[in-house]
Design a protein that fits this description.
Blueprint: H1 6-22, H2 28-32, H3 42-62, H4 72-79, H5 85-105, H6 108-118, H7 131-156
Helix pairs in contact: 1-5, 1-7, 3-5, 3-7
Length: 174
């Protein structure tokens, strides 16, 4: 492991562990529940993360560019991914852990090169030179917050205490 990447690797590993723990005991009803009809369900979020984790893995392992434009071929591939919680979770975990394993093997210079290739064709903007190394972890973290919120709302709408931080003193009671 390139010592310069230790913190990035630890961050990715920790987020992966927390993500898996946050999905423990999800029922089929809870996975499909939406707080509003137009909102995402946990199942939809997980499917999305599964697809994106495979793209990040391919970018880091094989130097494939991250999709930017949704071509007909890409749309067909995305649409072919079923909305199946267990299958998506398994595929996500496999792709995410493989990404972290690849991160352990890459050098700082190699990661910079993979980042350049991964985001070629994307709009020019300020992007850190090693973005590919932490982009997926940031992305999963954001959706982890969504999933935790959905799980808390699901519990509360059933008269149960929030699953995550049910006695947080920074939130008023009532």
């Amino acid at each position: 492991m390139d010592e310069a990447l230790r913190v990035v690797i630890e961050m990715a590993e920790t987020i992966g562990q927390r993500f898996r723990k946050s999905l423990e005991d999800v029922t089929a009803e809870e996975a499909s529940w939406r707080p509003l009809p137009q909102a995402n369900s946990i199942n939809l979020i997980l499917r999305h993360l599964c697809i994106e984790a495979q793209w990040h893995r391919a970018a880091l392992e094989r130097g494939e560019p991250m999709p930017f434009e949704t071509t007909e071929d890409l749309r067909r591939k995305i649409d072919a991914v079923p909305l199946d919680f267990e299958q998506s979770l398994s595929a996500f975990e496999e792709a995410y852990s493989s990404f972290v394993a690849a991160l352990r093997q890459v050098t700082l210079v190699g990661l910079q090169h993979r980042t350049e290739v991964a985001y070629q064709g994307w709009p020019a903007r300020s992007r850190p030179p090693h973005f590919l190394g932490f982009h997926q972890a940031m992305h999963v973290s954001m959706h982890l917050g969504q999933i935790s919120t959905i799980r808390n709302l699901y519990q509360k709408t059933r008269g149960l205490p929030a699953r995550f931080f049910p006695e947080n003193p920074t939130f008023p009671k009532g």
